[in-house]
Design a protein that fits this description.
With 275 residues, the chain is α/β, with parallel strands linked by helices. It contains ten helices and eight strands. Helix 5 packs antiparallel against helix 7 and helix 7 packs across helix 10. The longest helix has 18 residues. The two termini are 48 Å apart. Bifunctional serine/threonine kinase and phosphorylase involved in the regulation of the pyruvate, phosphate dikinase (PPDK) by catalyzing its phosphorylation/dephosphorylation. This is Putative pyruvate, phosphate dikinase regulatory protein.
Amino acid sequence: MPSKTEIKFFIISDSVGETALNMVRAALAQFTNVAPIYYRFPFTNSDNRLDSVLKQAEDQRPIIIQTLVTGNLATRVNQFAAEQKLVCYDLLSPIMQEISRRSGEMPHGEAGAIHRLNDRYFDRISAMEFAVMYDDGKDPKGFLDADIVLLGVSRTSKTPLSLFLANRNLKVANLPLVPSAHIPEQIWQVDAKKIIGLTTDVAVLNNFRRERMIAYGLNPDTAYSDMNQITAELDFAKQLYDKIGCYVINTAHRSIEETATLILEHMGLDHYGKN
């Protein structure tokens, strides 16, 4: 097996730096034999702090990824990189310049503006509290107040999906499906367009459940992971989804982000302006 190539990344931001870090990680996901070394410099919002960062960059010769919006800090980094012949990606300046050109408005130059404690922020906190309160069908009344209701057998990503969608300010309740369990009457009162049925492949679910039992130090070969039992559960879920007439997504081999995107597209919420 070939040794991995080490590549250094300087993540420079006048806020927390998550935008730049996520962009780098998205690019690195396409490479198998790269070992990234991250140097993170959050809250770089003064010339003195930037001077220290640039001195380190001169010594380390990294790829620079920056999301600076305060004063002329972004320009300084770009000029420094050009002089030192370093690769530098300024992620925000070109976008802000084009927005300014089209809108006629100058950017505020406010670091961390996306994290501002406004109404949208507190709505997101409320949505996350809602997801926790109405996880696993704890209180059926939550189905009537939810923006989205997720249904699915155990280990079809209901809870992580609920929390992920809560970060989009959506109130999500979920219900685990068990063939012998009663379906709350509130489910039948919810608009079918708000209900998402989650399913998966038998072999994938069997593997997930076996791994879960092993992680708990338990015997993996139980009714919980039995192939016939899983098939019966998925068949029960399919019959319920058909009866409700809801949208169904197979979560096998899909990430949480991919499944959430399908849900948002189905509900017409794939554009941020809509919610």
